[in-house]
Design brief:
heterodimer, A: alpha/beta, Rossmann fold, 4-stranded parallel sheet, B: mainly alpha, 3-stranded parallel sheet, globular
Chain lengths: 94, 459
């Protein structure tokens, strides 16, 4: 079954689209099927559970959420993007 | 010869008159080609964006037909005239990209940014082409109203300079309060709030008693977190509108479902815009970073990266009902906040950072910030509505959003450029901004702003 990643940003539209598409491309190259869903960070509190991984485009912390969380601002700035993509891949690969 | 020139002119006019469905794919393909995309890829970008536009058109129409009967019912029953529907920033950005002059403005703003970097007048390299729409809408509406291309260029040029400077000046807050170094946020929907927030914050600092109140409110997320879900919020709002219009229960429910559907579906359509623009945006990013890679610059990103801050979320959740209340009680306001209640986070994020996470003070300052948005939205609604219809959107009644000319910064630029005597008002605007620039960089100094922000580390 494809791994489910919840990608969150401010409006669930702009930066999360960029981040989600980079994650899908990277994982596809590695031969891993992932399914990404987008939402806004304000919704994570209610939606965060039930995914294999949460990736946010900016800083986010909420002690109530049990799902592991990775901050991926590097995918927007381009600095250290490969490292973050690898980290995301490692987190969901098994 | 004349016949040929005339033929080209007629063809060009027909092209402009054909509306966004025809123009968008062509303009975006050209934009893609200029940024060296392959023709197939460029065309696919154009088509993706156009399909998003078609979807947004359907939703705006659905929203207007869902809330118009409720809005007119509210007028008859309570004299509440909230006929200007907030259709959301996505719709406004889509009609911005559908303008015939949009390609010129993209290069103008990019050019101004590069020029200011070369002249060392800014530290921000704005690679976020997507959010150029916030700056371009000023120029595009000015062009629509005045038919004057030069005024349009002035409007979006002013937007670019003001955004980049506000962004430089507030960068220490991004670094210290939000904890994201080397990044600044030129997103107008976020940065515009500082124009009202900074003077209010200065004022509160001088009021004994009031300046010392600092409480954070815990558990807001648990209690009213559901307001953060646009679908639920839309349903509640739609039902409430129906109830205020004294509609029968089934009609209230139906209005609720329609508004919920629009609020849930709008982001999906808008994300097609982002998807289509992504290859172009990446090409522009590569171009600028190749040119300025060596210098220590801050990278301009979408403010989406900071609105996950818990104090911002708390303030936004509280401001959602407060904004609705403001819409009802502010005399002269005609705007009914709907779709953009989902992105109140952007409007309050900088207020919260300026207040160092003091939620009480953030809410106090957010009230004038949001009121200004409602009034500016009401004032510009006739122009925005006429322009939206000229791009091919079909709906009845006036529209607005909490983006575009509703934002304080954009409103100031827009009204200055379409005034009866634009030369005078633009000169005044430029002079005022020059004084602010001088005061901030020479009198106050960036060191002092840096020190103010540094106090917020690890708060």
């Amino acid at each position: 079954m494809a791994k489910r990643i919840l990608v969150a940003c401010g409006n669930g539209v702009a930066t999360s689209t960029v981040v989600a598409s980079k994650i899908r491309d990277y994982c596809a190259k590695k031969g891993l099927a992932v399914q990404t869903t987008q939402c806004r960070m304000i919704e994570l509190h209610d939606k965060g559970d039930g995914y294999d991984l949460i990736v946010t485009s900016g800083k986010f912390s909420d002690p109530d959420i049990k799902t592991p969380c990775i901050m991926a601002i590097s995918l927007l700035t381009g600095i250290g993007a490969d490292k973050t993509l690898e980290q995301i891949y490692q987190a969901v690969k098994d | 010869m004349d016949a040929i020139a005339n033929g080209i002119y007629v063809a060009f006019q027909a092209f402009l008159g054909a509306g966004a469905y025809v123009m968008l794919p062509v303009i975006i393909t050209i934009l893609g080609l200029v940024f060296r995309l392959k023709i197939g890829q460029a065309f696919k970008c154009g088509m993706t964006i156009t399909c998003g536009f078609v979807g947004i058109n359907l939703l705006v129409n659905l929203l207007k037909s869902a809330v118009t009967p409720a809005a007119s019912g509210m007028v008859t029953n309570f004299g509440l005239n909230l006929d200007v529907t907030d259709v959301g920033w996505g719709a406004i950005s889509s009609i911005t990209w559908a303008s015939p002059i949009v390609a010129f403005l993209v290069f103008e703003i990019l050019g101004i940014n590069i020029l200011m970097l070369v002249l060392k007048k800014t530290n921000t390299m704005d690679v976020d082409i997507w959010n150029y729409h916030h700056m371009m809408i000023a120029g595009i509406l000015v062009f629509f109203v005045t038919n004057n291309f030069v005024l349009a260029l002035i409007a979006s040029g002013l937007m670019a300079v003001i955004s980049l400077k506000l962004c430089d000046w507030t960068q220490p807050l991004v670094e210290h309060f939000f904890g994201i170094p080397d990044v600044s946020l030129p997103t107008v929907s976020y940065i515009s709030s500082i124009i009202i927030a900074a003077p209010f914050n200065w004022l509160i600092d001088r009021i004994p008693g009031l300046r010392d109140i600092n409480f954070s409110i815990k558990g807001v997320q648990k209690k009213i977190g559901f307001l953060g879900d646009p679908m639920i919020l839309g349903f509640i709002l739609g039902c409430a509108l129906g109830a205020l219009a004294l509609m029968p229960v089934d009609q209230c429910f139906l209005t609720g479902v329609n508004v919920a559907a629009v609020m849930a579906l709008m982001p999906k359509m808008t994300s097609m815009f982002v998807e289509g623009l992504m290859p172009i945006s990446e090409a522009a990013q590569k171009f600028t970073s190749d040119k300025f890679g060596g210098r220590s610059l801050t990278i301009g990103l979408d403010a989406a990266v900071v609105v996950g801050n818990p104090d911002v979320i708390t303030t936004a959740l509280i401001m959602i009902p407060v904004t609705i209340l403001l819409a009802f009680i502010l005399p002269g306001n005609h705007m009914m906040p709907l779709a953009d209640l989902a992105v109140v986070t952007f409007r309050v994020a900088l207020v919260v950072a300026l207040c160092g996470g003091n939620v009480f003070r953030s809410i106090l300052i957010s009230i004038p910030v949001m009121s200004a948005i409602l009034y500016a939205g009401t004032a510009a609604a006739p122009y925005l509505t006429a322009y939206a219809q000229s791009t091919g959107l079909t709906f009845d009644g006036p529209i607005a959003s909490m983006a575009g000319t509703s934002l304080t910064q954009t409103a100031i630029v827009f009204w200055s450029c379409i005034s009866a005597n634009p030369v005078v008002s633009i000169v005044i605007l430029v002079a005022v901004f020059a004084v602010v620039w001088y005061v901030i960089e020479k009198k106050i100094g960036m060191e002092k702003i840096e020190a103010y922000a540094a106090k917020m580390d690890e708060m």
